[in-house]
Amino acid sequence: MEDIELNDIDNYDWDPWEDGYEETNLNDDDLYETGLEDLDRQDDELWMMDFKRNNEDDTFKKRKRETNFLYTTGSSVDLKSEYMKKLFTENYRLNPNDGPNSKDLFSRLDVVDKYWLTFDNVKVATIERNGDFRFSKDKRFEQSIKDFRTTFEKATEEHRKTLNSITEEEGGGENTDAISDDVRDEIHRENIDENIEFHDRVLQFHKDGKFTEQETRELVGITRPKGKPEERIKFLKIEREKIKQDSQTESDPSRKDIFREAIEIIEQNIDDAKLEMFERPESEEGIHRVRKKVREDTRTKFEKFKRWARENLGSIAAIAISIPGIITTVVVAGKKDVGWGCKRGRCSGKSLG
Predict the structure, then answer these.
(1) Which superkingdom, per the lineage (predicted)?
(2) pTM of the predicted model, to two decimals?
């Protein structure tokens, strides 16, 4: 049987995530979009300045403290997000970019008359004088508040399907985007290595006469499917069913083992495509891998912080951490003039006099 070389099968890049990211010159449409983004940014800055200006003269200190905090979030979208986090408390698990339901929710929100949250231009929540966030008690707005809650629940359900939802569960909700980025990239690199290893095994089986050329092409094809993530997932699921059927009728133990490995590779690559879209993996093994990576990434960041602290803050008398490894406090000994407090990775220094 004629040997099949790597280049005869396909021109392997081994990194489908890089497709479509080549450097190109900006055309008129790109410049137009960039101009619109600049205008949106300017409008957002004006919106934030108006919010700050409207609340500057609030005589109720606790409410003013809350509005000041909202202003420091940096953008109108982040402000609305923090507002809802205070309103829904532990039930809030959203990201404005989770998907169409989340984008729809945030597009229908506004903050008016200093501290009122509106939904479709109806006041549904407010910040009280004591700083508490609560829903409106106006009976006229009951239906609007109900619609707001329903839209929020749809966005929340959408969020449960995202990669960030796992990161929040394991990492405590801080630095979610950064940890998610790290995790998906690490898993992606590991999957590339396993695809290459499986690809080489299939070629060796072909050289040994255990696979036909067509079988080899089909099995090699699952290691680097083409197209967008959705297209790759659809292709891989079709191939998975074919291989399952072949495996059921196969009697050769070595071929049966390869088919079993092929199914595992397919499921990893489906999960990889899901992660590329920042969605939860489809398989239980994929979810387990993500959870493990999040815990490892959190611990790694904490160990890096401890090394930095020893080098920059002097002798550390005590480090208190909370599960799952998020920094809560750092007490520095040996430097009486400076004390440091850290809350979930955010540190501030103050004179101890």
Answers:
(1) Eukaryota
(2) 0.69
